[in-house]
Amino acid sequence: MTTPLHDLTLAEASARLRDGSVSSEDLTEAALARIAATDETWHSFITVSADEARATARAIDAQRQSGAAAGVLAGIPIAVKDVIATAGIRTTAASKLLEDFVPPYDATVTTRLKNAGAVIIGKANCDEFAMGSSNENSAYGPTRNPWDPTRVPGGSSGGSATAIAGRQAYGSLGTDTGGSIRLPAAYCGVVGMKPTYGRVSRYGVIAYASSLDQVGPFGRTVEDCARMLGVIAGHDPRDSTSVDRPVPDYHAALGGDAAGLRIGVPKEYFIDGMQPAVEGAVRAALDTLGGLGATTSDVSLPHTSYAVACYYILATAEASSNLGRYDGIRYGARQAADDGLASLYRNTRALGFGPEVKRRIMLGTYALSAGYYDAYYLKAQKVRTLIRQDFDRVFADVDVLATPVAPTTAFRLAEKTSDPLAMYLVDVFTNPASLAGLPAIVVPCGRDEAGMPIGLQLIGPPFGEELVLRAAHAFEQATSWHRERPPEPAGAAA
Amino acid sequence: MKIGPDDIRTVARLARLNLTPEEEASMVTTLDAILTYMETLNALDTTDIEPTAHIIDLETPWRADEVTNEANTEALLANAPARDGNHFRVPKIID
What we know:
The structure holds two protein chains of two kinds. By secondary structure, chain A is an alpha/beta fold. Chain A has a single domain, classed as Amidase signature (AS) enzymes (Alpha-Beta Complex). Chain A contains 16 helices and eleven strands. Chain B is flat, with a radius of gyration of 23 Å. By secondary structure, chain B is mainly α. The two termini of chain B are about 45 Å apart. Chain B has a two-stranded antiparallel sheet.
């Protein structure tokens, strides 16, 4: 039986384009048909940019036929999280406030995708302004986990993950502030990568917490992610926090095996109350890596349990400042003033923002306000130093750290919506690397008793992308978890 | 209680948010629980610890003082909730 086009990995689709057995138009139509058949169930997309995608695909096909050099992603349909600006294609940040916002320019990562020949197929659903761990905070309705649509896909880049798990796109971009790429990757059984802070430009990415936000790829395989990372990484004069250092050949990093890799296993990431199947799968993954010649050793990151409190103070403080711009003056859905200009701001924000965004603005405003700044914000900044020092110490002795991604597999919709703190605690194993700005990749490493995917997180030292890619690739090549696929949604043609 | 209804109203005013009475009540409960959880940080002695504002060493980049952004006034104003020629229109603020 021939593989349906939507089932190809990014690397396979690229090879087929190169040997001329498919066109970009074929791949684009396959992706659009797949989205049409499945997205009523999964709701991975807020906007499907079918017309633009078809036009790009035809142009790329014509270029290829004329013999022009093709970019790394030439002709490949890619989904982009809806917090990343796409010129001429509306970008909502999953907020009602930006329902009709059409960016006048591309984010740098969008430009880089386009320059590499990618076909932007649509804008992926997410939590409003990337704030959430379940995708239930989207003003356009939640995304569903393809493995079980009664469960969440994780957040905030849930749609970017489900588009890959559900074979609706060959690759996608998400953003990760406190785990927003890694958690959905784990919950949906795909590969997702958060690069080192500063590795990828944030220009044109709708800001949530600027000292933490980072763009990264999702793919079906580690190789697919390495290809996309090579495209989006690099210095950008338009983002002064993007680091000016050469971008390695990430694809070449995949050639290495796990022999000699020193893997640290932080004991603080195996906690009371975690789902036994998750711990079991991660321990089994460590055995697999050991069998491939890696050495594993127990290490300690003593401040791990403080990361969630630290993160939610700093991230909400930054958010309260970043979201000040949504005042209904220059863009966004304005509400009328009833008591002077300030009432226009208040009314616009009251109706435009959802409950979780309001909560985080309130928390952040409180943490920065006179009388509380030292107790919350400054304290959290100091704890951030301690968390970073934990990592500095262990990376003197190990190459990468291997951990679970979350204490459980994907939970059910509405299970945590009435308890924000319980939702925040889902991030317990992803917040630490965010606070330290470290690169981390998630690869599928098992399934629980209900069949839900389990992910393995590999964290590297700053700019250690090649190390985590190498470790993840070696693991992936020795296992078959990445080849498993979710069931077809009811009513969809396979 | 870490935070009460009066605090919530003060913070909402600072944040330029109108909250309904139901939202106010919900904020009191949820923010109180979250702030209580955040106090776990007080278990750590951070007396001589430098705060981290940014994880990478940032240098101030310099460039020539030249216009580098393209003129796209129309595209920028196309998103305006209200415009008047090349201006964003707002309610009258000075009588």
